[in-house]
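Model: Ready when you are.
Researcher: Fold this.
Model:
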Amino acid sequence: MGRYREAEMTNAKRRLPYLIAASLALLAAAAWWQLRPAGLGEGFASGNGRIEATEVDVATKLAGRVASIEVDEGDFVEPGQILARMDTQVLEAQLAQARAQLRQAENGQITAASQISLRQSEKLAAEAVVHQRQAELDAARKRHARSATLVKRNALPQQTLDDDLARLQSAEAALAAARAQVSSAEAGIAAAQSQAIEAQSATEAARASVERLQVDIDDSQLKAPRAGRVQYRVTQPGEVLGAGGKLLNLVDLTDVYMTFFLPERQAGRVALGSEVRLVIDAAPQYVIPAKVSYVASVAQFTPKTVETASEREKLMFRVKARIDPELLSKHLQQVKTGVPGMAYLRLDPDAEWPTHLAIKVPQ
């Protein structure tokens, strides 16, 4: 009997630490329940997400060798700043050739214009000859008419009439030849004008080639399309890339937002421009203001067939809360993408923000 009591007391001592621990756990749970933070109410919604920003790939338009990269990872860049240069030796040689062809085409255009002037002068000369031959023909006709009258009266011999007829026919032939010269001059003018058009077309084509090659050379200096930060370098100087080959990746620090998800019953109440407060895990002491800039029109995490109410509750819509660019411009050095946090969205415009969500930004 004594041994049984001793064993019972020993077992009780062994259970005592577990009972104490269980009691403490119950007390802690009760204390947490009493001190738990109150919900935001029906006028608010919340969701966890990550800070994101628009990314821009800087790529070469033409295939070629990378001559140099002017920036490093983490550098801040301004719009129009040169980020990298491609080798342009071949393009510059092609540009010199195109410029020579342009000068040749311009000289051909000048020559064609001179030919037009020459043919026009020849036409004027031929027209003057036509007038001269016409006058000679008129005189030959009158002489022939007088000779014919006098021959009928036996005042002149037949030989004189025959000679005047020969002169008349000769004058008619000379006039026809002169008119043919005018037609030939007109054809020469048309040919010269056609050559001038061809020369002008050749000049425009050569000038377009020069402009195209100059644009290609300018595009070989890769410039920042917008302000941002270099996130990473894809290639190194000396590498040969194909058309569209990526060199750098930029993060646009003027377009920073948090993406989070809301269920259908809350997403349906979200309006563009609604006020949002962001709390970043890495800096929970700050509350950053933002506004809704996008609400997805198609749900995600949705089953193919939605029939029951329980299935509709699974609908989640993506929402983007964009941070004010002016605020971002004051704290560019602190902007980081990929940082998780919470987004608190005010669904009811008349609802008052809780004190712990009052705006507080870095100074």
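Researcher: Now this one.
Model:
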Amino acid sequence: MRVLVIEDNPKMSAALQKGLREQGFATDTSATGFEGEDMACTNVYDIIVLDLMLPDRDGIEVCRNIRRRGVKSKVLMLTALTSTDDKVTGLNAGADDYLAKPFEFEELAARLRALLRRDAAETRYLKCDDLELDLYSRTAKRGEGTVDLSNKEFALLEYLMRNPNRVLSRTQIGEKVWDLSFEPTSNVVDVYISALRRKIDRGFTHELIHTVKGAGYRFGVIE
């Protein structure tokens, strides 16, 4: 999952980015409404954490603008204003949820996951062959056994399973599972792919992660 945090407080922004990355979210940040709006409209995010009070324009205007421009990402608005009128204004502008400051990070993470589950069209389970990924409990099983995955391994496997039989370049994987600052020359994708292969492919008849020479990786069963 990929998150954009639009927050002008540098300490808050850094803390949110660190915490979300530890939870397995690829996280980008912006300190202004103008830049954040541009990032939201030029990149694909699953969710946007949007501060109401920004230095150049308020979050309500940013939210309205990105909705006018066709952005479908879920929006969680952060605000120190807690009146019903303020919340209604934000929701009418296109926000999906509100969280009042100050808040505990655990609540923010729980609300993000709840927003991502809100779409009834999103199935709880992703399946391929005898591999099953539970998006709610964040667990993986292959055959009769449970696969122990780190947060980043889970995020990588989820991305692969959401794009079956597609050739995905290392840059595509890096930018989606890590963030916009991903360095294309880094070997981190290969390292994590190798670790994932050991956990989900080793000892099974059908391998699911395949190397496409000179192009990247493809996920799925090859008959």
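Researcher: Key takeaway?
Model: The CA atoms of residues 84 and 206 lie 55 Å apart.
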